[in-house]
Amino acid sequence: MRTILSIENLNKTFETPAGPVQALRDIKLQVKPGEFVTIIGPSGCGKSTLLKIIAGLDIVHDGEVLLEGQKVERPSIDKGFIFQEHRLFPWLNVERNIAADLSLSQPEVRQKVDELIRIVRLEGFEKAFPRELSGGMSQRVAIARALLRSPKVLLLDEPFGALDAFTRGHMQEVLLDIWQQNRTTMILVTHDIDEAVYLADRVVIMDARPGTIRRIVGVDLPFPRKKSSTSFQEYRRLVLSEFERIEEPAGAGNYDI
Ligand code: ADP
Ligand code: MG
User: Fold this and answer.
1) What mean pLDDT do residues 44-69 have?
2) Which residue's CA is the nearest one to ligand 1's atom 26?
């Protein structure tokens, strides 16, 4: 299997005043070019930690993370990262936020920004400022900014978690559109089972304390998918059943750190 991202025997421990906290244990994952992987798991199971390590934002760990065969040692523009909060520059309008450090007076930048504005469906809002945008629109600007850098992989950490259900559904459509047009490799963290199944070629189900991969479910359904279809619901139930097994039995005590 050709892989773009390879994670081997990844272990991560945080040293805290209360002692070491193992956040990730023996994570192994191979991602194919153009694949859409979603990661789902209970709060605190290490999803954000894993994504940050892939992004090169956290390099203190054991094990190896290789992007196109190169060891990930620092953040770089070939690893796009989308946070739950959009982190736009409030003083720049939409097109300038997308261009960021690149100059719009360069014809190839201008052309690509215009194309991305169309892809993320923000035509007419080029000159708008972040304060004038809804949460979903702001996230689309953040995604366009990441895509302008042609990342090898786009990492999204609960990108739609703060949005209402309707906007979330719309954003899922936009993201699938982007993926189908660009074939950017996507790794998206979510706590929404529907979202995980709807978007993914494979759903990675994680377990907590310490964070491990419990199971990987391949979603063998063609696009466009229908959330109400029987086959979709079967996948949904399959992922949900793993989740229900993860949950601690009643009275097991409070494991919160
Ligand atoms: P998730 O994103 O799945 O909710 P995180 O990756 O944020 O989980 O956290 C995984 C575990 O690591 C949790 O137990 C959390 O408390 C711990 N953790 C995360 N970041 C730090 C940190 N900077 N220092 C100490 N512990 C941390
Ligand atoms: Mg998180």
Assistant:
1) 97
2) 14
Same domain, 181 and 251: yes
Cα 175 to chain centroid, rounded = 11
184 lines ligand 1 (CB under 6 A): no
Structure confidence by residue, pLDDT tens digits, 81-98:
999 887 899 999 999 999
Least confident among 19-33, 72-86, 221-235, 241-255: 241-255
In this structure, are 95 and 57 located in the same domain?
A: no
Q: Which of 38, 43, 48, 158 to mutate to test the pocket of ligand 1 (most atoms within 8 A of CB)?
A: 48
| Dihedral sign (CA 14, 17, 18, 19) | positive
Q: How many domains does the chain have?
A: 2
Banded model confidence at residue 65, pLDDT cuts 50, 70, 90: very high
Task: Name the residue at shortest CA distance from atom 5 of ligand 1.
Answer: 46
pLDDT at 190 over 50: yes
23 lines ligand 1 (CB under 6 A): yes
Q: Are 109 and 203 found together in one domain? A: no
Strands 79-82 and 62-67: unpaired
Assess whether 128 and 52 both reside in one domain: no
Are both 181 and 201 inside the same structural domain?
A: yes
Residue 45 CA, ligand 2 centroid: distance in Å? 8
Residues 59 and 91 both lie in one domain: no
